[in-house]
Amino acid sequence: MVSRKYEQRLRAESAERTRRRILDALYQRLSEAPTEPVSIDRVAKLAGVARPTVYQVFGSRAGLFEALGADLLYRGGFAQMLQEAAQPDARDGLRGAIRGVVRIYAANIDVVRALSSMARLDAAAAGGAIRRMEEGRLTGAADLAGRLAEQGWLRSEVSVERATDLLWLLTSFEGVDLLHTGRSRAPEEIADTLIAAAEQSLLQ
C-alpha cells in the first residue's frame, strides 16, 4: 500500500510541475507577443491546463504576475546578488549590487520589459509584481547608501538621501535597457559603465 507521505509527496511534485508549466507559458507569451494583452486562456492553453487551474494555483491574475516577478528574481540570481551586495566593504557591495541587478535584468530582459509595460497598462494585474520588485530595489539602495556613509566612502557633498536617489536611478531597468537596446552593450559592459558612474558620483 502506498503510504500517505508518499502520496502527499507525489501530489506536491505534481502541483509544482503544474505551477512551473504555467509560469513557463507566461514567459513564452510575454517573449513572443510583448505588446499584446496577456490572456489567461492563452496561457492555460500553452501550459496544457484548464483555465480554472491557473486560478487554483495562483489565486488571481495578479497572483500569477506576482509569482512571475518572484521567479524572475530567482532565475536571475537574486540570492547571489544579495550576497555580493552584503560584502563587508561597502564599495565592494556597491559593485556587486550593480553587477547583480544588471545580471537579473539581462537574464530575461524581454520579459522584464514586457512586464514593465504591462504594469503601466494593466496596473491591477501586473502592477503589483513591478511594485514589489521596485520596493525591494529602493530598500537595497537605501541600505547600501547608509553603509557607504557609515564607512566614510561618500563624498562630503553627497547625503545619504542623494546617494539613495542616485543608486535608485543607476540600477533602474530603464537605464539598463537603454544601454542594451540603444547602445547594443553586453551585460558586463553595462555593469562597468554603471559602476563607473556610481563611483564617480558618490565616492571620494
Automatic annotation (TrEMBL):
UniProt entry tagged with the keyword Transcription regulation: yes
Sequence ranges assigned to domain HTH tetR-type in this UniProt record: 16-76
Keyword set, alphabetical order: DNA-binding, Transcription, Transcription regulation
Domain of life, per lineage: Bacteria
Alphabetical list of InterPro entries matching this protein: Homeodomain-like_sf, HTH-type_TetR-like_transc_reg, HTH_TetR, Tet_transcr_reg_TetR-rel_C_sf
The keyword Metal-binding is assigned to this record: no
Protein's UniProt name: AcrR family transcriptional regulator
Recorded GO MF terms: DNA-binding transcription factor activity; transcription cis-regulatory region binding
Naturally occurring in which organism (per UniProt): Streptomonospora salina
